[in-house]
Amino acid sequence: MTDPAFDPLLHMEAMAPACGLTIADAHKPGVAAFLTLAQTMAATLMAAPLADDALEPAPVFAPGQTPSGAA
Q: How far apart are CA 51 and CA 49, in angstroms?
């Protein structure tokens, strides 16, 4: 279910500098393997049928505060 147009090495080379990361040559095969896995997982989720009105936004989390109406 991977996208044949997705190139994990090209993606890594483009995104690492944008994220302020330097990826050592020794780590690049592992990062590319993970990106391929992540892309496969994302494609699986995106392929699942879901009605446009099936979701509603979650409330905003504010640490240390209780939601209004909660005790």
A: 7
Asked if the model's pLDDT at residue 45 lies above 80, the reply is yes
Mean residue pLDDT across the chain: 88
What interhelical angle do 8-18 and 28-47 show, nearest 10? Answer: 100
3-class SS of residue 30: helix
pLDDT band of 2, cuts 50, 70, 90: low
In the predicted structure, residue 17 carries a pLDDT above the cut 80: yes
**CA of 66: how far to CAs of 57, 60, 62, 71, in Å?**
18, 11, 8, 7
Q: Are 28 and 9 in contact (CB under 8 A)?
A: yes
| Distance in angstroms (rounded) separating the CA atoms of residues 39 and 33 | 10
Angle at 37 between CA 31 and CA 43, to 5 degrees: 135
